[in-house]
What does this fold into?
Amino acid sequence: MSQQLCAAGYVVASRDIVSEDFDGEFVVLDLGSGKYYSMDAAASALWRAITAGVSIQSLVDAADGAAPASTRSKAQAIRDYAEQLVAYGCLAHSDVPGSTPLDPATAAVLKASAGPPRVEMFSYLADLIKADPIHDVEETAGWPVRKPIAAE
It folds into this structure.
């Protein structure tokens, strides 16, 4: 990965990307595609930091010196994580690097993580998540019959 890419920042890719903590499970949801992403503690800490405006370089510096997550360094795992979320369409590259200071709690989570940040993608509920039960039902048939999609 180039230093130029590392120096760049990341932003949430669209307004359709939302995140929430559900009873200890952190989830990022793409309302446009209906896919959702479950994240472990390290991944959710990184998501919160990146979307709050912390630079990747600050996150890499915080992980620097910690025991390697596996055969690759924690710093590379952080860079790979951000690029994975770009590939999923959750994050987008920004020309402006983040400038928010990294909080000590996030740094501690990154240093304590035993492995690389884990993200699991799920799409089996996509049709349900994308459904608009107020506007997508056929008025004469009622729930749960969906309106036919108009041909373009």
